[in-house]
Design brief:
Blueprint: E1 2-6, H1 13-22, H2 32-38, E2 45-55, E3 60-71, H3 76-82, E4 85-89, E5 92-93, H4 99-113, E6 119-124, H5 132-137, E7 141-143, E8 146-151, H6 155-161, H7 164-173, E9 177-179, H8 185-203, H9 210-219, E10 223-229, E11 232-241, E12 245-253, H10 263-277, E13 282-284, H11 296-301, E14 307-310, E15 313-317, H12 320-336
Parallel strand pairs: 4-6, 12-13
Antiparallel strand pairs: 1-2, 2-3, 3-4, 3-5, 6-15, 7-15, 8-13, 8-14, 9-10, 10-11, 11-12
Length: 337
């Protein structure tokens, strides 16, 4: 048997789907569906996929797959200083993949993205501990990063694990409409306005344009759970699912303006309920910051009864001096934005 690196045209699509379904590190973000969606958003990202394929006389088996994208900026100067390769969810690996196989894929990823990105970052949603040495040998350093996983298999237990504060807020907010079906593009645009303000005033990191979210809506990739009060969108979330897990990709709410309606709480609770109702085992809150650093989002997410996990991130810096300039620039922008 032989191993080789393959790209989109060469990957067996059925094998790709099988690997994501069966792998303990498989997520929606590593699926053929995710890559297909990213491929329609080439104005803002350049998607990529690399697989490690094992070939025998009678069959081919995919041992690992990495789906991600290189960010794009309209300004050439800004693109030069900010281009980065992001692998959401972490690389999808066969459960019995060896360190040698992982190293081979990672070395290929480094080689092929070296000229395109300042750095490559995998944002892990699962435990990569048994392959950490392989990542480090291939030049990917590990950094700690927290997340919350909510077990959604038992609805009663899911409710009981909520903090008393969240239970009270959900009871008060039950009169609100949380809408997932029958939405219009106008609703998505209204919700995006709330999200954009959040990123501009508090998050202070880049956000895709509204066309990205409208594309997800039109293609049925993103499920939008919007919170309405008196016919006005006051919050909501965009989630994606792979049948095993629901991922809260984006969430926002006009919480200061609607203090008695709790739009962010209601959006997250609706997503958790949907995970249970569709047979998903887990609701993934997609990040809770760095350990030891105060983070209000972590405090918010901690009251939904999830388990705090630390699966971290892997970082490979391709252009060290540009990376340092970028780090400095981000700090300056966050201070004055």
């Amino acid at each position: 048997m032989s191993l080789r690196i393959v790209t989109y045209d060469e990957i067996d699509k059925q094998e790709w789907g099988r690997l994501v379904r069966e792998s303990e590190t498989g997520t929606w973000f590593q699926s053929p569906e995710a890559y297909a969606f990213f491929s329609t958003q080439t104005d803002v990202i350049e998607p990529f996929v690399f697989g490690l394929q094992q070939s025998a006389i009678s069959h081919q088996t995919l041992r690992a797959v990495c789906v991600g994208y290189v960010t794009k900026e309209r300004s050439r100067l800004k693109q030069f200083f900010t281009r980065r390769a992001i692998v959401n969810g972490g690389i999808c690996l066969a459960n019995d993949v060896t360190n040698e196989e992982v190293e081979r894929l990672l070395n290929a990823i480094r080689e092929r993205l070296n000229s395109k990105a300042i750095y490559i970052e995998t944002r892990n949603f699962n435990d990569y501990g048994k392959w950490r040495e392989a990542f480090e040998v291939a030049g990917f350093s590990y950094s700690k990063h927290l997340n919350f996983h909510v077990d959604c298999r038992d609805k009663k237990a899911m409710w009981e694990r909520l903090s008393d504060n969240r239970k009270r807020q959900i009871r008060k907010g039950e009169r609100l409409s949380v809408i997932g079906d029958g939405l219009r593009e106008e609703d998505i645009i209204e919700w995006y306005g709330i999200l954009e303000r959040l990123y501009r005033t508090k998050v202070k990191t880049p956000l895709w344009p509204v066309e990205f979210f409208l594309g997800a809506y039109r293609q049925g990739i993103g499920k939008f759970l919007l919170v309405k009060y008196k016919e006005k969108v006051i919050g909501g979330s965009m989630i994606v699912t792979d049948g095993k897990c629901v991922y809260e990709w984006f969430e926002c709410g006009m919480n200061a303006d609607y203090k008695e309606q709790y739009p962010s709480v209601m959006a997250t609770w609706a997503g958790m309920q949907m995970a249970h109702e569709t047979g998903c085992k887990r609701y993934d809150m997609m990040g809770a910051g760095v350990p030891g650093v105060s983070y209000g989002v972590r405090d918010f997410k901690s009251e939904f009864g999830g388990t705090m996990v630390e699966h971290g991130r892997f970082l490979c810096v391709c252009k060290p001096w540009l990376y340092k300039i970028g780090q400095f620039g981000v700090k300056v922008l966050k201070r004055f934005k």
